[in-house]
Amino acid sequence: MKISVERSVLLKAVGQAQSVVERRNTIPILANVLIEAEGNTVSFRATDLDIEVVDKAAAQVERAGATTVSATTLHEIVRKLPDGALVSLSDDGTSGRLTVEAGRSNFSLATLPKEDFPVMASSEYESNFSASAPVLRRLFDKSKFAISTEETRYYLNGVYMHVSDADGGKVLRCVATDGHRLARIDADLPADAANMPGVIVPRKTVAELRKLLDDDEMQIAVSVSETKVRFATPDITLTSKVIDGTFPDYTRVIPQGNTRQMTVEAKDFATAVDRVATVSSERSRAVKLQLSEDKLVLSVNAPDSGAAEEELGVAYSGEMLEIGFNAKYLLEIAGQVDRENAVFMFNSAGDPALMQEGNDSSAIYVVMPMRV
């Protein structure tokens, strides 16, 4: 194999692939990236046996072929090469070495046989549809903060993507929860997605997927089966196993009878919560909300470190209410608001609160209260 690739093109392709590789590996081949050159393209394939990413790039291919080399080492080398350099990768198939050349720099890297590289078995996908990058980005970005990190409840360690019913008909919905807070985000159902099976997309896959979704013009081809999900652009294909478990019935957690409505400017609310939480004890970070007519008082009382209080003007006309929340959860939820106003709906001090952006119910958040 012998190819030449422009440094910035190579860096992007290798960077996407190497981020999937697990740093601590008991199987040496999993630390490597499979490089395959043919025609006028080169592809870089990496896997941790749960996720596989294939990134294609344009290259001058003098000699077709394939080999595997350490993903992180190759990425570090390319990263440190001067911008605009033309990088040459070559191996003769017998020496067990890959030569990387750029200008006056020359590297010789150990390789492993390409035959040993595990390729994820292709799956028969029951549902194939396309969605725009901004739609998928919104669905996953707004829900991923609520993914649970508790390994014992593994079925909560991802975002539940499924087809559901909303007021206007069928929607593509993403839900995540860790038992303390919940995010439920809806988007218009793409054509051909109606028969999609519901799948739990793992946390790591959600993080890797984010890198595919930066181009607003991009259409993403989505394929879903009971065991796998695949997201593809013309250059990058990300395939992942889905979490084998049943996502709980989240509709039971979303409160229906919350009638006390508070409207507040999201940025002001977030900065006020952040300020008063400065004195809260790290462990609980409890913030008390005291609501009276058109007034919200945020307060923290931490006997070890001190107390803080801040008043905000809000739109509220219900009965007086005192309710406590974890400051971190409030900040994360307020951080999801794209428009000016956040609308909170309360019932009582012991019931979960509901939040949405203005009058838009396509994104709703639930947060459990705390004793304060």
Give a short overview.
With 372 residues, the chain is of the alpha+beta class.
What are the main properties of this structure?
13-stranded antiparallel sheet, 9-stranded antiparallel sheet, 372 residues, 26 strands, alpha+beta
Give the helices and strands, then pairings.
Blueprint: E1 2-6, H1 7-18, E2 32-38, E3 41-47, E4 51-58, E5 60-63, E6 65-70, H2 71-80, E7 86-90, E8 97-102, E9 105-112, E10 127-132, H3 133-141, E11 158-166, E12 169-177, E13 181-188, E14 199-202, H4 203-209, E15 219-224, E16 228-232, E17 236-241, E18 260-265, H5 266-276, E19 286-292, E20 295-302, E21 306-313, E22 315-316, E23 321-326, H6 327-334, E24 341-346, E25 353-357, E26 360-367
Antiparallel strand pairs: 1-5, 1-7, 2-3, 2-6, 3-4, 4-17, 6-9, 7-8, 8-9, 10-15, 11-12, 11-14, 12-13, 13-26, 15-16, 16-17, 18-22, 18-24, 19-20, 19-23, 20-21, 24-25, 25-26
Helix pairs in contact: 1-2, 5-6
